[in-house]
Amino acid sequence: MSGPDISVVICVYTEDRWEDILAAVSSVRAQSHPARETLLVVDHNEALRDRLLKEYKERQDVRVLANAGPRGLSAGRNTGIAASRGEVIAFLDDDAVAERDWLRHFAEGYTDPRVMAVGGRTMPIWASGRRPDWFPEEFDWVVGCTYRGLPPGRVRVRNVLGGNASFRREAFDAAGGFATGIGRDGDKRPLGCEETELCIRLSRARPDAVLLIDDRAVIHHRVPEAREHFGYFRTRAYAEGLSKALVARSVGADKGLESERRYATRVLPAGVARGLRDAALARPGGAGRAGAIVAGVLTAAGGYVVGSVRARRGGATFSVTPLAPFEGDAHG
Where does the Glycosyltransferase 2-like domain start and stop, copy by copy (predicted)? Predict the structure, then answer.
């Protein structure tokens, strides 16, 4: 096997996704560029952890560990990073499956020693079987997927997207781990942006660092029925605004909103125009998509304003601590 050793970290928190978790692990084990190991990090759920330990007790390439930090995705990822052995650490969502060449495309990106992170393309699997007519592709980030407006091919970016991403180990040595207090915590308010903050911090710590997205590194991400509704769309957009305010407060608005300015001034107006054109041509969902884009922007902006006020008052914070060596128990 050529290229770097890659450890894959999958953070899990609920038995409701049992079949999805098994499918995610199976997709890693089927890679054309074999993973060195798969680490299942269980977020404060002893029943799920025990069940996974039994499921994989015969598998030396799958390790099951408990989140060693506070509840939430960021601390779970940090636990996986500290326990992993690979030169590169890749992250896969627990409700996603990777295509066979996912890790191979990641590995190819690291032939350049300046490359510190490589992300991929995440495609939605809609529970209803098809995209809702009103749901704009420009807002696929709402359901954790690659959205219209990202450049195609293998390109440099400000940040990778956390559910389908990889980092060179030395990136964490330089910048520390994921910030806690900013990302998701199970089924609570769907905050995000922890990978954005980490990537900006990494670029500051290593100004020569190159971060890439390779759209050939594809995963397929399940979108549950509850997330196909406008209520979730609005909640997620508001939470994104809150998260972006924290990031901007930490790293400055210039860097924290650098990519968002292009998105808001070029990608979204084009999306509205496309929706209105489709409506004029009596195509399904055109007016709904245009309206959803406008509503999404306004809702996210509202969250950003509220988040900025809270951050200035000290009511919303997050923290970054150096990654300590892993001392917990693990199978495998």
Answer: 7-173
Other Cβ atoms less than 10 A from the Cβ of 106: the count is: 31
CA 202 to chain centre: 16
Contact between 135 and 112 under an 8 Å Cβ cutoff? The reply is no
Distance, CA of 43 to CA of 67 (rounded, Å):
5
Three-state DSSP at 125 gives: strand
User: Which 3 state secondary structure label does DSSP give 169?
Assistant: helix
The gap between the terminal CA atoms of the chain, to the nearest Å, is 21
Q: Is 56 helix (H, G, I), strand (E, B) or coil?
A: coil
Q: Tell me, what amino acid is at 50?
A: D
From its phi and psi, is residue 88 left (phi > 0), alpha (psi between -120 and 50) or beta?
beta
Residues linked to residue 8 through DSSP beta bridges, in sequence order: 38, 90
* pLDDT value for 315: 54
pLDDT (tens digit, 9 = 90+) per residue, 219-253? 999 999 999 999 999 999 999 998 888 887 766 65
Six token digits for residue 149:
């407006």
Of 162 and 253, the structure prediction assigns the larger pLDDT to 162
Burial of 319 (0-12, 13-18, 19+ CB in 10 A): exposed
Question: At 132, is the secondary structure helix, strand, or coil?
Answer: coil
Residues 290, 269: Cα–Cα separation, whole Å = 9
Q: State CA 123 to chain mean position distance.
A: 13
Query: What rounded mean pLDDT belongs to the chain?
Result: 90
Q: SS3 of 135, please?
A: coil
Task: Give the helix/strand (H/E) hosting 210.
Answer: strand 210-223
As beta bridge partners, residue 124 has: 221
User: Which residues are CB-contacts of 191 (< 8 A; sequence separation ≥ 6)?
Assistant: 182, 183, 184, 185, 239, 240, 242, 243
Q: Which single residue is written with the structure tokens 């970290």?
A: 9
**Cβ-based neighbours of 314, under 8 Å, separated by 6 or more:** none
In the predicted model, is pLDDT for residue 189 greater than 70?
no
Q: Which of 143, 249, 265, 267 is nearest to 196 (CA)?
A: 249
pLDDT at position 151, please? 84
